[in-house]
Design goal:
Radius of gyration: 18 Å
Protein name: Stage 0 sporulation protein A homolog
Keywords: DNA-binding, Phosphoprotein, Transcription, Transcription regulation, Two-component regulatory system
GO molecular function: phosphorelay response regulator activity; transcription cis-regulatory region binding
Helix content: 40-55%
Order of helices and strands: EHEHEHEHEHEEEEHEHHEE
Organism: Ruminiclostridium herbifermentans
Number of strands: 12
CATH topology of the largest domain: Rossmann fold
CATH superfamily of the largest domain: Response regulator
Number of domains: 2
Oligomer: single chain
Length: 236
């Protein structure tokens, strides 16, 4: 089995070396970059299996790098972990809204970083193994599980892996109320260290893509104090 390839952008040399040494010691292939521009110029023709992006960078910051990766067809489904020295909710939420799959606040332990990387790869592998030639549809939303494509009407909607998995599990359980904890477990994995706030952020971003009016959603309903439900009622 080939090694997973990870691209890391980090401008602090000692952190860069720490990540590279420990990831390579655990069997990963690692390429490191000092700035976002260099990573972007190297990743589209040689796409890795995971990105680790520091937020605070010279030139374009990690949030902008994340945004551009999600806008490109060759990298829009590649998992992204954000590194940030800031702990404010704004940075975490913005990173998740731009399409990051996870974030780690500095200072972090190598063990925690490895656990999150392995958890992300397990989720991706499980998703790939469970793909069957299945179409899930409701109203004008259609999911092709085999091709990992989502359509609204006849228009394809680009979305990162976590949004896709979240929509899929909601639509497969139409009419059922799914708690935030359940969704966090099924989409991010039982060993994910994040908060249920992560689910809320991804739901909001998902609504912006599939709802006619994301301020007054009719497909993904909020069940106050519990979680979310995909409406199983057809529009009149």
């Amino acid at each position: 089995m080939s090694k997973h390839t990870i691209f890391v952008v980090e401008d602090e040399m000692h952190i860069q070396q720490l990540i590279k040494y420990n990831l390579e010691s655990n069997g990963f292939k690692v390429s490191v970059f000092d700035n976002g521009e260099d990573l972007l110029s190297n990743c589209f023709d040689n796409t890795p299996d995971l990105f680790i992006l520091d937020i605070m960078l010279p030139g374009i910051d990690g949030l902008e790098v994340c945004k551009r990766l999600r806008q490109n067809n060759s990298t829009n489904a590649v998992p992204i972990i954000m590194l940030t020295a800031k702990s404010e909710e704004f940075d975490k939420v913005l990173g998740l809204e731009l399409g990051a799959d996870d974030y780690i606040t500095k200072p972090f332990s190598v063990r925690e970083l490895l656990a999150r990387i392995k958890a992300l790869f397990r989720r991706v592998n499980t998703s790939n193994e469970q793909k069957v030639d299945t179409i899930i549809s409701h109203a004008d939303i259609t999911i092709n599980c085999t091709r990992r494509e989502v359509y609204k009407g006849d228009k394809i909607i680009e979305m990162p892996l976590k949004e896709f998995e979240l929509l899929k599990i909601l639509m497969k359980n139409k009419g059922k109320v799914l708690s935030r904890e359940y969704l966090l477990d099924k989409v991010w994995g039982f060993d994910y260290y994040g908060e249920t706030r992560t689910v809320d952020v991804h739901i909001r971003y998902l609504r912006q893509k599939i709802e006619e009016n994301d301020e007054n959603p009719t497909l993904i309903e909020t069940v106050r104090g519990i979680g979310y439900r995909f409406n199983d009622k057809q529009s009149p």
